[in-house]
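Figure 2 data, in text form.
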Amino acid sequence: MPVRCQYDDCHQGCPLWEQAILAREKNQLLCAQLEAAGKMRADQVASLKQAIAEMQQHEGQMEAQFLGDQEKLQGMVQKKDEAVQLRAYTYLQGNKSPQKKPPRRGTRVSLAPTHNSSTRTIQIPLNPIPVTGEPSGTSNPTVKAKFTATPVFTDLLGTDVDTLSKLIGKIEQLLVSNDVTVSVKKFEKTMAKKGKKSRSRPSKALMNHIHKFDVQQVADFQIYNPADAAQVAACEGGLADPAEDLFQWHFGPGYIQSRWNDLMIGKIVDAALEDDGEDGEIAQSGIERDFLEAVIVDKLESYRAAWQGFQPRFVEHLDRVETGQEARARGVQAFEQHQLDSRSTSSKHRKYKDSVGTITATIAIKSGERNAGDIKTWERLLEMIEHLGEQGMSSEEEDEIEVDNTKVRIYRVKLCVWREPRVVEYIRFVNVQTALFKKKQRGPIPASRIRSDAPGSSKAPCGLPKSLYNGEWLKKSTPVYLKELKGSKYFDGHIQNSMGVFGVHYGEPHFLLDIPRPEEAPAPDGYNFRMGDFRRPLWVNPKYPFLLLLLRFNPFYGPLLSCLNVSQKNLPIEEVMTIPLGETSPQVRWGLQQTLLDRWLHLESLLRLTLWTMMDLHGGRTAVGVYTFLFPICYCYTERNASSRLGAVDIALRSRDAFLPLMAKITLMFILLDVHDEDWRATFQARTKLHWQWLVDLEHSAVGDLNINRMGGIIDLTRWLLPYLLGKHRVPLHFLYGQNFPLKEPIPDALVRIGFVPDPDKVQYLGRLPGDVTFSPWSVHKLVWKKRRDGAPLLAVSFGLSTPPSPHAPPSADMADSSVPALPFPAVKRDSGQKQGEDIHAFMERRRLHNEKRAQHESSEARKRCLAQELHASKGGAPGKKGARVFIWDEEDGGFFIRRAFNHTDAADRWDEFTPNQRIYDSFSNQWDLCTALAPSGEAESDYAYDEDKDSFHQPTSPVDIFPSIPDVPGREAMETETGERAAQVLARAYNLDREDLSEDADKPSGWKKQDVPSTISLRFGFIEPEIAPSSSPQMQDKACAWVVGDETWSVPETSALPTLLSHILEGNLNDAAANICDLTSPDSDLQLDWTVNIKTIRQRDRTLYEIRPRGSEASGPSILLESTATILQIVRSGWGYDSGMESIIRNLVELGAEFHPSWQRPVHDVPLAPPSQVTLGRRPAGYMPTLVDLGVYVRQRDAFLRSLRGRVALFYGGIDKRAGRRKTASN
């Protein structure tokens, strides 16, 4: 606010006026000074800009000069390098032998030891096909440097004379050796760090203190004292932290997420970072703290596992916790076994590495020989070794033997029981070649290795071709273990049935045994189909070849297709109120739930857009003559106008199935587009404007995932489709060629090129084979049984290298149809009863002695039955389908006879080949033995005709006479009586039996028939009364024995060994029982013969069931389930099911009063949902910028993976991912 003068008429003489004039002049002066300062500032800025421009120009000139100098320097170095190489080449040429010329440019380098190959390699006596191979390297010779460093070189390279001299010497060594690969990274790193003081690493004692808390190795944690539980509890509650100088792990429950251990990990990492310093290895490598903590967590798990192995555990059979001494003993045993396994694994790794190296070197050596004709053989051996892998090598056991009063270390090679014995014959060739190589090397002599008969303890590796497994071992393995092996299960070759010859690609053997006829599995058309048509292999119409690509299991999974995963039980159907046209009142209609309907409609529109765009990219159509099914919307799932709920369900399910051919056709388009244009996805996305995630999810679903098994089918030869499916995708194909050969129809070139068309010799071969369905010879390549097209079958190799046999086809890793090597005695058949090396006379003598022992304890009923069988057999006729089993002794090479079982049809055809003196009947086992060696001079003649099926003397009038029931025992009243009755009724209806047929003597008194004690202990427990009872073995009390056999009034004989046997059975240790008191441990038992039933183990959560079927019955028919193993053994010992199949088993189980359950096999098409393959983030073009959709998909897939079983397993694997996963799933 201005100051007003106190006088109204102010003039120049006023004091205020003078002050205003002075202030104005002062302000003008200040403005002039500010203007001058601004001008000076602008001049300074201009000068600075000019200086910067001059500096930039100078730097450009310096950089150009530097680049020019560097180019000149490189040119000079290149010239010097050429001079060095020229001098080295001249030096080498002067030292070479005058007889050998240097290799011409462009030719393959010869291997150094080729001139001595005759003494370094062996010749495999098989028919090889020479092929080229890469030579293996040899050791680098040490050559004294011939060049010296000159001042010119040192000035040029900027180094000293000594360093340059060493570099030139290294170059000379490389020039005269075969290895021309030079690694200069280490040299550059050394030169870069030259002069820098090296940092010493922490001592081992310090690392143990920081890392393991004064523990030297992980095994020492077995006796480790973990942190006190009270201190840990206080730390977890936040009441107290551990002392700063305390380093001690907590191994209790929840140790991974324990706050105590987190603090310990923090102190360890802090100590490591402090010790490393700012310029240490950790800081220079850029390792983050989270990574170090994750590493410590991995170590913590291994420490805790070592400690946990020595802690007491609960012993179930003792019903108590182990003592400290027992826990330590168990831990020591487990640790020693782990050490043995580790050494065995190392030995197998070394043997596998040596074998592969030997074969590779041999191939390289022989590739330089002109007359080396077995290169193909060695390549097959390499393929076989690679199939076996490290786990396929034999185990070894170190031992010492005394030779001339000197102890010599040897290795005993254990027997690989699971491996095909013929594989050993080929591995020996590799071992012989390895030994020859090692003889030429300097150093200690390797220890000798002796093969032993002791079996190894290593498990068989999974996923090998079936021909590499021992066939006898596979037969003895459990079905569950065989399923874990994941061996081959698909066939590739030719078969012949009543319809003609089929060419099969990737087919299932079970399906091939019963291929449906065209009228049984007709191809659906594009307008109408039946429910279930898309869930079984069909005869595919050439108009719809994409139906081959339907999935074998439920395809409705994943984020796109899961909305279609509905069934009749969970299908959401709702009422709809609608007013029909011309009506005034609303009516109730039924239809699909609106939310699900919208999802189906949206999915169908996207699939149709995808199909049309893909077809447009392929030229506007799939192929000539290929049509499309009606789309799902044509089946009215959007109308919601069904008159009933059931009608709405039918419409919805038919519409859902209509998605299947649409999906299959898109799958076909994926195959065709990937063949013709790999970059079609970018064009597809540009045309449809769909997000990239749509195509990614589609490829990870059942539509685009080509690594899953497809349905396949039986097709007419559609030419255009075969090149894209044969041998590339898991699509079973079956081509019918008919019965008239040679073929008159045009055959696609794709089949001709791979040799899939049967020639006349193949057709004749299939026609000569017996059976309704005959197969071509099989071999195995990877995981598929394939028709062998390599010529003659593989023969055995000989170890007499000086006298090789005649050449044959080279070996392969798959030897399913190979001939057996020449042995002193051929391998006997399983379940034939013949022992290895046993002729027919020794077999008959052994069986005679065994029958004499059985006759001493034979019951009266069994004796009557045997007499009736002998009387019937004396007539001499061929047994009928209910008669005795027939074994024929066929003569093999070398005059050996092998015992084989024959069915009644084949046995009747060959019956007249043997004279009555060449046939022997045994009534105890009810078996015939036919052998020409019994009467070599006799001529075969026909016996009089006799029909055994019409008059069976050996079969009694009632099963009760043979298998009477056991008496009631304590606790029998509480048994569920309806179990056996209901099972009998259900199975009786399945077999069209009358309930009265199960008890033929209806006029007899009701109740179970009492089974005599000798039959009980013989049939249920396999008891055999020995001549001398064991005295020192534990025995069961007589009262308990009487209760076990079901007759409390029965008294045990004083000299009987039954109490001893029952005591061993009760303890579950039959191995300690004498072999002559139980047929389970006797090698001469009838249990070693063929069983009349097939038994399959079914494991449930809390019990184990056994499925029983008569041998030869249909797998799809009904069966029975038993839980009692004693009842199963009684069925086997009694031979039930041999004469009248399942009817005999049911009747006898009902008479026995045994508990059993009916069972049927699940339909083949009812397959559970198969888990999809691991879903990745998919493809994106270069330079793609992620969106929120991509981020959401990543978060969803990451969280789903961490919550899955596979993700939870990854938590225990280690690394930074484990720590992140542990934090993510901590709440779960």
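Caption note: The radius of gyration is 43 Å.
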